[in-house]
Design goal:
The protein is of the alpha+beta class and about 750 residues long. Helix content is about 20%, strand content about 30%. It is globular, with a radius of gyration of 28 Å.
Length: about 750
C-alpha cells in the first residue's frame, strides 16, 4: 500500500507540473457531481484536500469487526468503512492515508500486519493503526460498540459524536435488532434522529443497512434483517441521504460472473455468500447450531465497501424486475396466511427480463409471518420447494406461499408496522444475481395500533386505531373487542382507503391496588364475507409512588392475563424508591444467599434504567443506558465500575463520576439482603425536579434483578430467567425510553402506563 500511495502522489505531481490543460472527462464530472450531491457539506473540504478530513463511525459488531478469532477481532483495517474511506482518500489524493484518532476505540489494539480471515497474513508493509504518512489524512474516530442495538447508537450521537466537528458520519446498525427481534418503529425513529443530529451539526451522513444473518436455516435467517433494510432505504430516500444496502452487496454479482444456468447461479450465490462469512474453523465455537454468523469476514466487508463507493459515485442501477406482493390473512378459522408474489417488467428499463430463465429464493420475512418450514412441491403446485424455485421465464409466473404465524420469541408481534410485510427475493437471471425487495400489504383490511407508551390512563385505556381498507366498497359489519376475558361488540362501516379512525376504550382496574400485567387485545372484524382477527399484546403497569414497596415480577412466570397470585415464586424481590432534594434512593430487598467457598461472581446483578430528560422530552423515543450494579457477597459499600454515556437519556453529555453513586449491601436480621443505591440530585440537570408537583415530577423507570445460580461443582454460575425479576417486562429493548414505567415524585393518585410493541 505504501508503493501504491507513492505512485498516486507521483502521478499527481506529474499532472500538476505538466502545464497542459486536462481534457474534460464527462464520466469524471458525473462522479464528482454525485459525490457533491451525497456529501454536500464536506465535498469542498475533500476537493481542497483539507489537512484532516474527519470521520466518525458509529455501529455495532459488524463495523467493530467483532469476529470469533481474538487475533483478528476488532482490527479495523478489515472493516467496510476503513476500506471505503481508503478508496475515498485515494480518490482525493489523501496521501497520508487513514489515521485512527488517538483515544479512539481500537487505537492501540493492532500494530502488526493485518491477518485475513482465511488464515493468510496480509502484506507485511500494510500500515498499522494510528500511523500516518506525509500529506493530508482521513482522521477516523471509532465509536462502534459490540452488542448494541440501533437505539443505543443515540448514546454516542447525543454525547460525544460531534465533539470534534466531524465532516462525515458513517452509520451501520441493526444486526442485533434483527437477531434479537427488534422493533421497526424504534429503528425508524433512531435513524431519523441520527440524520437530524448530523444536519444540526453540519455533518454529512451515509447509512449502511445491516447485512444478512447467516445461521442454520439459511433462507429463514437471511431475511431477518431485510425489514430493517427496507425501513433504512425509506428513511434515507425521504431525507435525501445515501443508503448502502449491505445485504444486497454480499450476494450481488455482475453478468458474466454467474454460472451458465440460473440454478447454478443460485448455488454459486450461496457459496459466495458463505465464503464472505467464513472464519477460521479452529477459532469458531464448535456448536454450529447456536453460532450466529453476524459479522462478514474481510471479503464480505470488501464487498460492502465496493458497494458503498459505487453508490457514492454513480446512480444506482434501476432494477429491471419488479415484484407485486400480497399477503392474505387467514379467514374462517384457518391457521395459515398466503403470500402471493408475481413478477413484472420495470417500464423504466429497456428490454424484458421476464422472458429469460430465472431462479429465485424467497428469504425469510423476518416479522410476524413466515413461510412454512415444511413446504413441499405438491403443497404449492408451483415448483417452489423449501422457498427456492426456478422457471424458464418469469413472465406470468406466480408464487403462492403458505405462511404460518411466528411465535413471539421468534419475531412475532414485535416488529410493529403490521400494515406491511417486508421481504426480499434472491433473483438469479441473465442480468446477474441480486436481492429484489417487496412490500406486501395485508389484504384486505389493515389495522394500525399505537406503538411505544401511553401514560396517564385511569379506569379506561383509550385506544385510537387507524384502519385501512383496500376493498372496492365499504366494509359493513361488526367489530368485536376481546379484552381480559370480556368482549364488546359494535357496528362498523369502514370506507375504502386509508386512515379510517376507530376509537376503543379498554376497562382497567384501579391502579392504586393492582400489579402490572400483560394482556392481549383481539379485534375481530366480520360480516357475511370476511372474518378477520387482529391481535396486540399490551403491557400495563401502574405508576410507582415514593415510599411504596412493590414486588418485582419473575420474568420466567410472566404470562399474559395470569392473575398476580399465579406469578408467585419461592424467591421474591422487592423495590422501594425514595427521594428528597439531594437525590434519588433505591432500596432492593433480596432473598437470603448461601455463600459458596471462594465465590468471586456477583451474588446478583441489578440494572436500573432512568429517563430523566426534561419536560417535553421524557417519554419520547430514545435510549437510556443501563446503570448496572454487581452486588458482592460480602456486606458493605461497593463500587460501580463504569457509567455509560448519556446515562439518563438524550442530552446528558456531562461525564458522571461513579464514586458519587453510593451503593451498599447488608444482611438483615431476617437473613434477607438489602441493596441501596443513592443517585445525586444534581446529576439530573436536565430534569425540572419537583417533589410537590409544581414542575416536572415524573421519571421513566425500570429495574431488573438477576440472582446468581450455581451449577455443577467448579462450573461458573449463571443468572437464569427463573431467577430474574423486573419491574416491567416490556416487549422492547430494555434501554428504550418507551419501555419504561413511571415513577411519581409528587403525591398524586397513580395511573396506568401502557406499553405497545
Amino acid at each position: 500500500m505504501q508503493f501504491t500511495r507513492f505512485l498516486t502522489l507521483l502521478t499527481f505531481l506529474i499532472s500538476c507540473g505538466s502545464g497542459t490543460a486536462e481534457t474534460p472527462d464527462p464520466a469524471a464530472a458525473a462522479r464528482e457531481a454525485s459525490i457533491a450531491h451525497w456529501l454536500p457539506l464536506s465535498h469542498g473540504r475533500l476537493k481542497e484536500r483539507a489537512e484532516e478530513y474527519k470521520v466518525v463511525v458509529i455501529g455495532d459488531d459488524v463495523s467493530n469487526y467483532n469476529v470469533p478469532d481474538p487475533r483478528r477481532s476488532r482490527d479495523l483495517r478489515n472493516t467496510w468503512h476503513w476500506k471505503f474511506l481508503d478508496t475515498l482518500g485515494q480518490h482525493y489524493r489523501y496521501t497520508g492515508g487513514i489515521r485512527l484518532r488517538s483515544g479512539s476505540r481500537g487505537y492501540n489494539e493492532t500494530l502488526a500486519p493485518v491477518i485475513h480471515d482465511d488464515g493468510e497474513d496480509g502484506p507485511e508493509n500494510l500500515p498499522p493503526l494510528g500511523v500516518d504518512f506525509d500529506g493530508p489524512v482521513v482522521l477516523l474516530e471509532n465509536l462502534t460498540r459490540s452488542g448494541i442495538g440501533t437505539l443505543q447508537t443515540l448514546e454516542e450521537i447525543n454525547s460525544t459524536a460531534f465533539d470534534r466537528d466531524p465532516d462525515l458520519v458513517l452509520l451501520m446498525a441493526g444486526i442485533n435488532d434483527g437477531a434479537q427481534n427488534g422493533n421497526l418503529a424504534g429503528y425508524r425513529a433512531a435513524l431519523e434522529e441520527v440524520i437530524r443530529a448530523c444536519r444540526e451539526h453540519s455533518a454529512d451522513i451515509i447509512i449502511a443497512t445491516p447485512p444478512l444473518i447467516l445461521q442454520g436455516r439459511d433462507l429463514r435467517t437471511l431475511g431477518l434483517t431485510r425489514p430493517l433494510a427496507s425501513v433504512a432505504r425509506e428513511v434515507a430516500a425521504a431525507n435525501d441521504v445515501l443508503c448502502v444496502d449491505a445485504g444486497d452487496a454480499l450476494v450481488a454479482s455482475r453478468p458474466g460472473l454467474v454460472a451458465v444456468t440460473p440454478d447454478e447461479a443460485m448455488e454459486s450465490a450461496f457459496l459466495r455468500l458463505k465464503d464472505r462469512y467464513r472464519h477460521p474453523v479452529e477459532q469458531v465455537a464448535r456448536d454450529a447450531a447456536v453460532l450466529q454468523m453476524l459479522v462478514p469476514n474481510h471479503r464480505g466487508q470488501q464487498a460492502i465497501a465496493e458497494a458503498a463507493w459505487a453508490a457514492l459515485i454513480e446512480a444506482a442501477p434501476t432494477e429491471p424486475v419488479l415484484i407485486d406482493a400480497a399477503l392474505t390473512l387467514p379467514v374462517n378459522g384457518a391457521k395459515e396466511a398466503s403470500l402471493e408474489l408475481s413478477f413484472r417488467a420495470n417500464p423504466a428499463v429497456s428490454g424484458n427480463r421476464l422472458e429469460t430463465p430465472a431462479a429465485v429464493a424467497v428469504l425469510g420475512l423476518g416479522g410476524t409471518w413466515q413461510a412454512r418450514e415444511d413446504l413441499t412441491e405438491s403443497a404449492l403446485n408451483t415448483g417452489l420447494s423449501n422457498a427456492r424455485a426456478s422457471t424458464s421465464r418469469l413472465a406470468e409466473w406466480k408464487l403462492r406461499i403458505p405462511c404460518a404465524a411466528v411465535p413471539a420469541n421468534y419475531g412475532g408481534r414485535i416488529w410493529g408496522e403490521e400494515s406491511i410485510v417486508r421481504g426480499s427475493v434472491l433473483l438469479c437471471d441473465g442480468s446477474g444475481t441480486r436481492l429484489v425487495n417487496f412490500n406486501a400489504s395485508i389484504f384486505p383490511i389493515v389495522v394500525k395500533f399505537p406503538s411505544g407508551r401511553l401514560e396517564g390512563s385511569g379506569s379506561e385505556l383509550p385506544l385510537a386505531l387507524e384502519v385501512s381498507s383496500s376493498l372496492p366498497e365499504a366494509f359493513v359489519g361488526t367489530a368485536e373487542v376481546i379484552w381480559r376475558g370480556q368482549s364488546q361488540s359494535f357496528a362498523v362501516s369502514i370506507p375504502p382507503g386509508p386512515g379510517f379512525p376507530m376509537k376503543i376504550g379498554l376497562p382497567l382496574p384501579a391502579a392504586s391496588s393492582s400489579a402490572a400485567f400483560k394482556s392481549r387485545m383481539i379485534l375481530k372484524l366480520k360480516n357475511d364475507a370476511l372474518n378477520l382477527a387482529f391481535e396486540r399484546e399490551i403491557q400495563l403497569t401502574p405508576d410507582l409512588l415514593l415510599g411504596q414497596t412493590v414486588a418485582l415480577m419473575n420474568r420466567a412466570r410472566y404470562v399474559a392475563d395470569a392473575p398476580p397470585g399465579d406469578q408467585a415464586d419461592t424467591i421474591s424481590v422487592g423495590l422501594q424508591c425514595q427521594a428528597d432534594n439531594n437525590g434519588l434512593y433505591f432500596i432492593f430487598d433480596l432473598p437470603p444467599i448461601d455463600v459458596p467457598t471462594g465465590q468471586k461472581q456477583a451474588s446478583a446483578l441489578v440494572d436500573i434504567t432512568l429517563d430523566a430528560r426534561g419536560p417535553g422530552e421524557r417519554g419520547k423515543p430514545g435510549s437510556c443506558p443501563l446503570l448496572s450494579l454487581a452486588v458482592p457477597w460480602q456486606d458493605g459499600k461497593f463500587a460501580i465500575e463504569k457509567l455509560p454515556n448519556g446515562l439518563f437519556g438524550s442530552g446528558y453529555d456531562r461525564e458522571l463520576i461513579p464514586s458519587y453513586f453510593l451503593a451498599s449491601v447488608k444482611t438483615l436480621a431476617t437473613n434477607r439482603r438489602q441493596v441501596r443505591l443513592s443517585v445525586p440530585r444534581n446529576y439530573f440537570y436536565l430534569h425540572q425536579w419537583s417533589l410537590d408537583g409544581s414542575a416536572q415530577s415524573t421519571l421513566g423507570l425500570n429495574a431488573q434483578v438477576s440472582m446468581l445460580t450455581m451449577g455443577a461443582e467448579n462450573a461458573p454460575g449463571t443468572y437464569p430467567p427463573e431467577r430474574t425479576f423486573s419491574l416491567i417486562a416490556a416487549p422492547l429493548p430494555r434501554t428504550s425510553a418507551s419501555a419504561l414505567g413511571l415513577l411519581q415524585l409528587a403525591k398524586k393518585p397513580p395511573a396506568w402506563a401502557a406499553i405497545f410493541p
